[in-house]
Amino acid sequence: MAFTVEHFHQLTQLLSERPEWRAELRRILLTDEILEMPGVLGALATAQQGREEGLRRLGARLEELAEAQRRTEARLEELAEAQRRTEARLEGLAEAQRRTEARLEELAEAQRRTETRVETLTREVGDLKGILLESQHRDRPFQHFRGIVLKARTVPIEELAALTDAAVAEERLSEAEAEEIELADAVVRGRDRRTRENLHLVFESSWGIGEDDVRRAARRAALLANTGAATRPVAAGRWATPEAHSSADELDVWLVVNGHALAPGDRG
After folding, report:
1. Which one-letter DSSP state was computed for residue 156?
2. Torsion of CA 20, 23, 29, 34, to 10 degrees
3. For the chain, what is the domain count?
4. In a 10 Å sphere around its CB, with 0-12 CB exposed, 13-18 middle and 19+ buried, how is residue 253 labelled?
């Protein structure tokens, strides 16, 4: 029998009235895969919802990270700016330090110049004092050397030159040795307080008697003795160094310290 449209309408009427028939018909007409499709699609929808939720959470996390990155970059910029300010401050301090060091160097140089000037002035004052004292020794020998000789008087340079010239002529002195004698600060002639014999004092005068003064007096007195004169070396001044005392003892030189005559070995 042929299946007509009427039959189809009757079938659909029955299926609408009998739901169990519809389910059975679907099972017969559709494959298992098609029948399972709604569940699969539901699972996919659920999974898709999960992925979308995950993407939303990921997006939110990424936004949080982006915000954190922005805050970090802002903080880094603040730190960089602080670093720039610090470096600028350090450069300012370094420049101030350089200026301070330059100023200190200027002050140090000024101090060195002052010290040099003071040393020069000290030497000049010492020289002037020495010259003044030498003049006093030469002009008033009877006052300064009375502890060694009586009736002391300074031998004029002309008289001393005549004495040394005669010794040079007799070849008891060389020209250089004669000149060395004449370089003595002065030669004083008098009578020895103990023996009353004529005596020539060859003296070197300094404000402060040093070892060199003692040695010059000893050397020049020894040269003058080659003329036949009785001589005695003397170093005179306001004070004497320990080395001057030691050399005086060693070379048999008298010292006149602040007006007091000291024989070799006598420290006053």
Report:
1. P
2. -170
3. 2
4. buried
The gap from C-alpha 15 to its chain's centroid, in whole angstroms, comes to: 114
Same domain, residue pair 191 and 147: yes
Kindly give the parts of the chain with pLDDT less than 50: none
Q: Is the pTM of this model over 0.70?
A: no
94 with 153, same domain: the answer is no
Asked if 167 contacts 161 with a C-beta cutoff of 8 angstroms, the reply is no
Residues 260/263/266/268 CA torsion (nearest 10 deg): -10
Can you give the pLDDT at residue 183? 93
Q: 233: burial class by Cβ within 10 Å (0-12, 13-18, 19+)?
A: buried
Question: Each residue of 148-207: pLDDT tens digit?
Answer: 999 999 999 999 999 999 999 999 999 999 999 999 999 999 999 999 999 999 999 999
E-only strand ranges, the chain = 149-154, 186-192, 198-205, 208-209, 231-237, 239-240, 254-257, 260-262
What per-residue confidence (pLDDT) applies to 2? 66
